[in-house]
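Running log. JK asked me to keep both predictions on one page so they can be read side by side. First protein, sequence followed by its tokens:
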Amino acid sequence: MRVEASDNAGFTLVEVLVALVVSSLLLAIIFDGSATGRRREKAAQESRRALLVADNLLARAAAQPMGAASGQGTSGSLAWSVDETVVSRDPRGLLALVELRANVADDEGHRRFTGALRRLKTVPQQ
């Protein structure tokens, strides 16, 4: 008994090229998704860091005497500023409602976080 090779054994060059193109497109999509995920994760980490910096700044500013909370500086790659604004004063002149605002931006100047709070502070007596 003799076994003959069939003409359908193997793949044609066109079939192999189509399989390579499809595989390449799928790999490109997967790698792009991976890179996008890494960029988003980095941005989320920067935003979390900015939130922590702003929270710390506002807590420190709230604990300081009136008029001493404003300032600016850097924390790692983040630039920050804190402003204190008097919203209103009581008629006796003993207390003032102040608004504390913290702005945090990244090293490219993009604002990452802005937060504000209001606190009662004692007015320093002259």
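And the second, directly underneath as requested:
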Amino acid sequence: MKFKVKIFADGADIAHVTRLASDPMISGFTTNPTLMRQAGVADYESFAKSMLQVVGDRPVSFEVFSDEFDEMERQAMVIASWGTNVYVKIPITNTKQESAIPLVKRLSENGVKVNVTAIFTKTQIDDATAATIPGPGANISVFAGRIADAGIDPCPYIVHAVSVSDPHKHIDVIWASPREVLNVVQADALGCQIITVTPDILKKVPNLGKDLGTYSLETVQMFYRDATEAGYSL
């Protein structure tokens, strides 16, 4: 199946990133401090520069990790200096729930490409979009999967983000934190420009458009094979 939505690989395993760098399906890359810690990254800048060497000129998002806005700004300028394809992830608030919007606006006005992350509400979508209008490029990362985890349909939030950002062609909406391959189909249908996809979901992408009768047969074959190999008897 062909989609307009771009697939960005989300992760921090440099070996995995290296493999995906040769995959034409992958249009860009994202990571965050949590993924980096899980992958055992010890040196932030060294890892980031290694990743940039691997991915070429495709867009990559790296996140600041301070909780103070002055230090976030300093880190953002350092990260932005690593390449013209680099987007700096700025969380929509700090841990004290103080808005990062003034910082996002300053960075945008200073020519930094930003990825405003951890967005969950329509007000946050509106504020982040307005703050990034002056910039050279921006991503609005709506955490659709986590919204769904709260038992709330994320699609209206994606629709709102796409509608608000549509007049500004340098601003792309990201369907972040997907939970299943269906989210790729949904993001595409709603006009979302980007979806971040984790390794476990990437493995399932080849199933898109698969004949359900064939899929049913393969599932039955799997049950039979596993029972046989386990040597079960009654």
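Observation for JK regarding the second prediction: The first helix runs from residue 14 to 20.
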